[in-house]
């Protein structure tokens, strides 16, 4: 990634998944309102789709139990993109042309969305993206991002590296749109911070090991890793090689316990930016944001936790930032009493929701940038006798 700001465990991706959602009969003769999800529901990144589907199910069931939206029940319609751009675009075109679908989440991954967003705009299809990390949404009318903006992520990480006295950094990232955008951002931010940029090692999906990439940067003060499946390979290679520098995430993907599973103790001290993620912190749940706590505990009750088989690290089987898409949709459908995207898009743009009420615990205020969030947190992985946890190191 940076591709998703969800808590996932790639090591548990063998979980069986059926691409089905929840549904309910609408009151009276009102048709159901369909919500589309396009995400990898199979393959090595399937747990992303599982987590997103779980959080959407929890929100949709909450809304339906309360009578639906303006008398209509919601129904989740899921399409499996795997990690296949062709499938992702095909599913997006299908959703864009389906009048019953009033909101689409996905396709996940920046490159896939870049190929699909034109179809959404042409069809005036409202869409919300919790797993698209780079690129601008400001020039879109119907697209919104519910993920921490990568430019804010990058700046926070670089500012922390500068404070820590790091003098050089190398990037290991997939050779895709997100990698290109991250490379460009580092070329801009690192010189401004007085940190030497050692370049970008372009990883491949079929790499069995990232050892060669890590060895290239063996003397670097820091290595920035991808937030996708490949990032865990970089972490594992860092552990294997005995790399002593700092390991930082380009985005929120390092929150995923797949990184802990892959790298073991090498992940200790790893730093990553993210939207609010209170689950692994050693703080009382009474201190959690109320909406976030409600959503996470609903996920735990219905779906349970991911547990790393090697490390015992845990994460909820959900993606709260995905739930924000439906929560925002709920607010504007109620306020406009409409499902017309021409009315909903400007209503979402005008939203101003507090962090206390949203499922993710982040304030939502899209404005003209179409970015849900405008605050980024910085976390660091650590471990003690009780296991793995994070501590927030966001500058005050």
Structure description:
The protein has 396 residues and is of the alpha/beta class. The protein contains eleven helices and 14 strands. Strands 2-1-3-4-5 form a five-stranded parallel sheet, with helices on both faces. A four-stranded parallel sheet has the order 7-6-8-9, with helices on both faces. Strands 10-13-14 form a three-stranded antiparallel sheet. Helix 1 crosses helix 9 and helix 2 (85-96) packs parallel to helix 3 (110-123). It is globular and about 65 Å long.
Any key phrases for this structure?
single chain, 396 residues, alpha/beta, five-stranded parallel beta sheet, 11 helices, 14 strands, 18% strand, disordered N terminus
Brief write-up:
This protein has 396 residues and is of the alpha/beta class. It has helices at 46-65, 85-96, 110-123, 150-163, 177-192, 211-216, 229-241, 257-263, 290-303, 320-336, 341-349, and strands spanning 33-39, 74-80, 101-105, 127-129, 143-145, 168-174, 196-203, 222-225, 246-249, 271-274, 305-307, 314-316, 377-384, 387-392. α1 runs parallel beside α10, α4 packs parallel to α5 (177-192) and α7 (229-241) runs parallel beside α8.
């Amino acid at each position: 990634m940076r591709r998703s700001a969800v808590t996932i465990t790639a090591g548990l991706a063998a979980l069986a998944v059926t691409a089905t959602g929840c549904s309910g009969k609408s009151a009276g003769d009102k048709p159901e309102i369909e919500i589309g999800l396009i995400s990898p529901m199979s393959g090595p990144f399937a747990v992303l789709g599982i987590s997103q589907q779980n959080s959407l199910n929890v929100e949709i069931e909450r809304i339906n139990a309360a009578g639906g939206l303006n008398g209509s029940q919601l129904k989740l319609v899921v399409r499996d993109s795997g990690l296949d751009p062709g499938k992702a675009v095909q599913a997006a075109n299908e959703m864009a042309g389906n009048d019953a679908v009033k909101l689409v989440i996905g396709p996940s991954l920046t490159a896939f969305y870049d190929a699909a967003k034109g179809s959404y705009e042409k069809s005036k299809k409202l869409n919300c993206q919790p797993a698209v990390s780079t690129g601008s949404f400001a020039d879109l009318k119907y697209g919104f991002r519910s993920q921490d903006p990568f430019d804010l992520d990058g700046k926070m990480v670089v500012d922390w590296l500068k404070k820590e006295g790091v003098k050089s950094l190398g990037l290991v990232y997939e050779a895709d749109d997100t990698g290109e955008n991250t490379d460009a951002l580092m070329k801009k931010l690192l010189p401004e911070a007085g940190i030497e940029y050692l370049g970008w090692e372009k990883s491949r999906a079929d790499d069995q090991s990232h050892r060669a990439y890590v060895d290239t940067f063996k003397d670097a003060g820091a290595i920035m890793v991808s937030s996708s499946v490949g990032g865990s390979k970089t972490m594992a290679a860092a552990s294997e090689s005995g790399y002593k520098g700092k390991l930082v995430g380009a985005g929120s993907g390092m929150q995923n316990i797949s990184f802990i599973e892959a790298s073991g103790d090498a992940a200790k001290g790893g730093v990553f930016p993210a939207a609010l993620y209170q689950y692994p912190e050693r703080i009382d749940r009474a201190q959690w944001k109320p909406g976030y706590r409600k959503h996470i505990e609903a996920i735990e009750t219905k779906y349970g936790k991911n547990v790393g088989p090697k490390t015992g690290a845990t994460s909820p089987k959900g993606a709260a930032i995905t739930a924000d898409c439906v929560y925002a949709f709920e607010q504007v459908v109620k306020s406009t009493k409409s499902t017309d995207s021409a009315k909903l898009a400007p209503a979402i743009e005008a939203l101003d929701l507090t962090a206390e009420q949203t499922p993710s615990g982040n304030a939502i205020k899209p404005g003209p940038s179409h970015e849900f969030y405008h605050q980024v947190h910085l976390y660091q992985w650590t471990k003690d006798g009780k296991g793995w946890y994070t501590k927030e190191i966001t500058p005050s």
